[in-house]
Design a protein that fits this description.
The protein is an alpha+beta fold. The protein has helices at about 5-10, 90-95, 125-130, and strands at about 15-20, 50-60, 65-75, 80, 105-115, 115-120. The structure holds adenosine-5'-triphosphate and magnesium ion. Magnesium ion (MG) binds near residues 89, 90 and 141.
């Protein structure tokens, strides 16, 4: 038997957690979770980045649901969004495959890069995005 490689060691481990900032909610996370210590695997800067979020904000009408969201999602890492009901987890996840476009009152701003491409660029077909980037929901929320 050989020792598991860095990728295998990293699999199944919660690597990162991000807290959505929510209008009206406390500014500090309800549950503070620090990134897991490095016990192997590549340093962050060498990982393949799938998504890069910069200054993402989503409003429903005039009401902001999430704002000032900045984080990266890496290949072969588990990224968890943890927070109380209504803090904006689903809203933020819907930014990753343009599902918020289907909600008439939703307005998305900021930048969402997918493999280095702006997911919201005018040349990008949102239907194609949703075909390639799936999401599974435990319930309608
Ligand atoms: N379609 C919508 N129209 C208007 N407001 C919405 C809509 N969807 C969500 N919101 C509001 O946006 C905020 C974030 O909701 P969201 O569903 O993203 O939270 P959540 O963290 O996924 O909650 P839960 O843990 O209950 O699934 C809440 O204030 C919610 O009322
Ligand atoms: Mg939800």
């Amino acid at each position: 038997m050989t020792e598991p490689g860095p990728e295998q060691q990293a699999e199944g481990r919660f690597e990162r957690a991000a807290e959505a900032a929510v209008g009206g909610a406390p500014s500090s996370p309800a549950v503070a979770i620090e990134p897991a210590p490095q016990t192997g695997g590549e340093p962050t800067k060498q990982r393949s980045t799938i998504f890069e979020l910069n200054g993402v904000r989503v409003s429903y009408g005039a009401k902001p649901a999430v704002r000032d969201i900045n984080f990266d999602i890496y290949q072969h890492r588990i990224t968890a969004l943890i927070g109380p009901s209504g803090c904006g987890k689903s809203t933020l996840i819907r930014c990753l495959n343009r599902m918020n476009d289907l909600i008439p009152s939703a307005r998305v701003s900021g930048r969402v890069m997918y493999h280095g491409e702006d997911l919201y660029a005018s040349k990008v077909d949102p239907v194609e995005v949703r075909k390639r980037i799936g999401m599974v929901s435990a319930c309608s929320g």
